Amino acid sequence: MKLQPDRIDTLSVTGYGPGWIGISGEKVTRSVVITSLGEQFDWGCAHFSELSPAHFARLADLSVELVIFGSGDQLRFIQPAWASSLMQRGVGLETMDTFAACRTFNILAGEGRKVAAALLIEAQ
Question: DSSP alpha helices (H): ranges in 1-124?
Fold first, then answer.
């Protein structure tokens, strides 16, 4: 599916499909974190089972008010203790499937919110 956001002055998800997402026109096939502040980096996990508290602790260091966790093709929740580093810094965490997370990120980033999307793209 191709997405056409309203004018966004930062990174945005421009499309997605099985095993990939488009970030500002670039096709990405690995798990990635993007922020409305313009940051983008590999998240270092190819499957939900590889996630650990360290993945979420890294997100706590971002200067955002909310992290949207895209859990892959299906909705899956992390262990609550893994979010403790986010909670200690007052950062919210919302979980949804990756495609819903992409759409939500675009909306919030377009509103000027300080938001990050941690998008799990599982190896096919």
Answer: 53-60, 84-88, 98-110
The answer to whether 92 and 104 have CB atoms below 8 angstroms apart is no
Tokens of 9: 């002055």
Q: Largest Cα–Cα distance in the chain?
A: 37
Length of the chain: 124
| CA-wise closest residue to 94 among 29, 86, 123, 28 | 86
How do residues 10-41 score in pLDDT, each as one tens digit? Answer: 889 999 999 999 998 899 999 999 999 999 99
Distance CA 23, CA 3 (A): 10
Reported pTM: 0.91
Residue 4 DSSP label: -
Strands 92-96 and 66-70: parallel
Complete domains list, the chain, with CATH? 13-119 (3.40.1230.10)
Residue where the block lists tokens 């990120």: 105
What does the pLDDT look like over 49-104, one tens digit per residue?
Answer: 999 999 999 999 999 999 999 999 999 999 999 999 999 999 999 999 999 999 99
